Amino acid sequence: MFGAIEAGGTKFNCALANANGEVVAKTQFPTRDPETTMIDVVEFFTHTQQTHGTMQGMGIGSFGPINIDLKSEHYGRFLKTPKPGWSHFDFLATLQQSFDVPIFVETDVNTAVLAEHSNGAGAGCDNVVYVTIGTGVGGGIISDGRLVKGGIHPEVGHMLLPRHPDDHEFPGACPFHGGCLEGLAAGPSMKARWGVPSETLGDDHIAWDIQAYYLAAMCINLTSTLSPQKIILGGGVSQKPGLIDRVAAQFESLWGDYLPLPGSGRVSDYIVLPQLAPEAGLVGAIMLAQQAGQSPR
Ligand code: ZN
């Protein structure tokens, strides 16, 4: 058995899977303070192991910022985070107290890109970027078949963007950068900009033109720095019907006739929706648990 946790800022998804990656038990609960939340995590895996068998490894895809450097003595520990109570919480050590199995920790977007790269929209590509646009904006990158971890981990959501000509008044909602990508294009930022939740904005509201422009500008930056073969747009905001086509149109006009796109050359094959949503993060955490189970202790 393998234990997987998708630790999100608003909810936790936990699953127990067999060696084929098939989920045999799963649960979901709200993210509260770390101590209360971890009681639910430990209880789920303790009980499900009694029914289904012992875990050989665990995988965590977590909200960040969190230390994902396997060689660091602080591996699996949160960095300073605005989320109350979670700054410097040692996620890995806390789990390890209850479960003496190998545990791998990644960011939630890294587990999502692992899954989409292996079985989803990025299958067959060695260079894939997965970006989630929802409560926040985050990106997982696979380059030459490997996860890009960098010095801490990439923070795609905090790249700076040119302003849409009709969006100069709104200061942006990121507490650190104001109008970075997340501060302009995450769900709560759209709500702050327009005064209503993004899902209630009509199809022909200018909000969607502005949103498409920001996501297209993001795709230009990702294309010019990483040269991916696919850019996958996940998260709740990306699911807005028709938005991805508007992103593609804006991307074409911003990119111009510069380098051809990889693959078919069509933007519609390059900027795509996920195939495993909303399960990608959990599927990737199961893959990570299997890798942990095979790792030397
Ligand atoms: Zn920011």
What does this structure look like?
By secondary structure, the chain is α/β, with parallel strands linked by helices. It has two domains: 2-108 and 281-293, ATPase, nucleotide binding domain (Nucleotidyltransferase, domain 5, 2-Layer Sandwich), CATH 3.30.420; 121-272, ATPase, nucleotide binding domain (Nucleotidyltransferase, domain 5), CATH 3.30.420.40. Helix content is 35%, strand content 18%. The chain has nine helices and ten strands. The strands form two sheets. The protein has a five-stranded mixed beta sheet with strand order 3-2-1-4-5. α2 links the parallel β4 and β5 (103-107). α3 (108-119) packs across α9 (280-294) and α6 crosses α7.
CATH topology of the largest domain: Nucleotidyltransferase, domain 5
Small ligands present: zinc ion
Mean pLDDT: 95
What's the CATH superfamily of the largest domain, by name?
A: ATPase, nucleotide binding domain
Distance between the termini: 17 Å
SSE order in H/E notation? Answer: EEEHEHEHEEEHHHEHHEH
Would you state the CATH class of the largest domain?
A: Alpha Beta
Give the oligomer, counting copies of the same chain as homo and different chains as hetero.
Answer: single chain
Instruction: From the alpha carbons, calculate the radius of gyration and give it in angstroms.
Output: 19 Å
Task: Indicate the CATH architecture of the largest domain.
Answer: 2-Layer Sandwich
Helix content: 25-40%
| Strands in their spatial order, largest beta sheet | 3-2-1-4-5
Which shape, going by the Cα principal axes?
globular
The description of the largest β-sheet is: 5 strands, mixed
- Estimate nothing, just give the exact number of structural domains: 2
Number of strands: 10
